[in-house]
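Notes continue from the previous slide.

Worked example: a multi-chain complex. Inputs as given:
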Amino acid sequence: MRALIVDDEIHAREELEALLAETGAFTVVGKCANALEALQAIRRDKPEVLFLDIQMPMINGLELLGMIDEDIMPTVVFVTAYDQYALKAFEENALDYLLKPVEKERLAKTVQRLKRILKEGERPSPVQGIIPALTKIPCILSNRIKLISLSEVEYVKSDLAGIYVVTANGQYFTELTLRVLEDRTHFIRCHKQFLVNIDHVDEILIGENLQAQISTKSGHCVPVSRRHFKKLKDRLGL
Amino acid sequence: MTLLFSLIQTMSVFLVVAYLYCKSPGFKPLAIESPKLLDKVFLYFFFSAISMMGTYLGLPIQDALANTRAIGPVLAGIIGGPILGTAVGFTGGLHRYFFGGFTALSCGLSTTTEGLIGGLVHLLLVRNNKADHVFDPKVVFLTTIIAEAVQMGIILAVSRPYSEAFELVKVIALPMIATSSTGAALFMSIIRDQRNVYDKAAATFSTKALRIAERTLNILATGFGGETAPEMARIIHEETGVGAVAITDTQSVLAFVGHGSDHHLPGAPIASPLTRRAIAENTVIFADGVHERHVCPLSDSCPLTSVLVVPLTQDNDVIGAIKLYEPRQKRFLNMNKSLGEGIAALLSNQLLLSRYEQQKNLLVMAELKLIQAQVNPHFLFNSLNTIISIIRQDADRARELLIHLSNFFRKNLKRSGNLSTLEEELDHVNSYLKIEKARFEDRLTVEMDIDPSLLHIQLPTFTLQPLIENAIKHGVSNMLEQGKTLIRAYRKEGLAFIEIEDNAGAYEENGGTDGLGIKIVDRRIKFLMGNSFGTSITCVPNEYTRVTVKIPAGGVPEECAHSS
């Protein structure tokens, strides 16, 4: 099984890697120290299993899950030292978790369970119940990560360079995909390459041939494609 | 010459009156600082009577009276002001007028004037902030000389025929001026002495009350009960000088000092029905030993016959009583009676206060226990996980970390609520940081800059730990970049400062919600060292959060150290 380890403490990653190696059931495709590294690695390496620590800087493990595209969502095994609220949620949703320090015997059970799941080809989707709603979008600045809250976002655009979140103050590069942002936020797809935050729409200009354009409150223009115009009208109750 | 002696004789009568007056309850209006209207009315009658007596005791000379009538109005004026002086003078003068003679009018007029002169002197003294000279015999002496001289002038000016008036003045002037002024001065000197006696009694009373207060306050701060009662009883006994002092709770005697201590034993149930009644009804009970006798229920040979029982209250509940006794042969002084009541009121107040302090202290202690108990399970399990991992690579380092971990927990468990030196605090923190450093490795750097001369100063235990834990929690463990923690201790402007800084600058972002640890640290420092000390926080978002602890240069002051 191709596994990815995500934990912000180096010795915790090393220990888990050693334990996984001992089982002989895993190929560790990568080790990540935070959610953003993990997001990139998941997209790049498409691991089958994610060993995920919960308490991590800036974006915790659960929030990370809310940022992963559904079609590459690995099977998740939570690894935590202590988190009584999360553990309760895992129990209720029948999710697998390991407690640090990890016991070999307990890990062996997880291995059995994972083998069964992967053989049966189950799509791992039971995480829905515990994933917190996406409220902030992690954006990468030159020297740090900025979390931009959804309410600030006017629209999101995709171009060759990547996905950009646009606010009244500027635009920021993000690792999240348009698909994730469309599915997990209230933003509306108005164009193949654009999502718009309906709260920031000032007016919609309708041109010839049903070519429309949205003007945002801070004066940005967002194109509306014919394909998405009807959906937009429905959403606005027009 | 005969006239002079006769006048001296008359004057002596006044002095006897003055003496008797001073010993009577009627003296009270003069003993108090600012007499009320009723007191002034009393003084008016008194001094008018003195003035008339001067006329009655006068010696007939050449169809006139050589007399000491002036003493009354002048004294009344000086003591009570121009209105009282004039009123007394007018009354005395009117009285003299009806005696007749060729000086009737002039004497009547001049007596009124003499009262007015006294009053003017009073005003003069008060206006110049020399009110204390009102009772000065020298002032009275001089005033009376002037007043009598003026009287002589009035006689010469008003009485006719002038030649007779002149002859009269020639004879009476000197003896009257001399005796009246001496008499008035002596009269005042008697009044002044008596006033001093009153003042002194009041001063003694206040001193005693204050001394008892001062000596018992500290004792009572530790609570009311079997441990503190004997010392309090001893102090009250010593200060009041009564025969015996007892302190009880609602059931039994807590302490007994003085006569009869052979059979009034601490620990015994309350035997006296008076005490039981005082406690049950929450009233002061006084048995003066004459009308109502205290009969000792324990021993026939008990010398104690008079008793004052004052209930002690806390939040309006009677929690005990203080008893003051005097033996048969000694009168129960009024002063000790009011003193006893005052002491009980004072102690009741103090009990309330000390309970409040205790509760405040308990609260802080409870919160402290809370932070200690809050040793974060997350930290514990992650540390163990880290060490387990390190065992694979470096057994010696793992061993060292386990020792730090046990040192950290031992100190968490052991040190509760007392004081520690900065060095001990740093040792505790150091074990913690060693482990955190192992968890985060290169992601965490710790810098320390400690003024070595501060290592020995005393701090409340657990001052540093919660602050550093916060710095780690909001700093490195929530940052993608390098986490830095700085610990500084330095002296500045005669004070000592300890700073803990992280480079996350996330304090405001978190809305200060997790400031509980900082708040408790702050409260304990203020509690022990005063409100001008404590913690303060500066935060520049995304740059740093700095918690500064301000304390006296010597740490916790010695006298506070025991009450922590």
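Summary box: The longest strand of chain A covers residues 153-159. Chain A has a mean pLDDT of 87.
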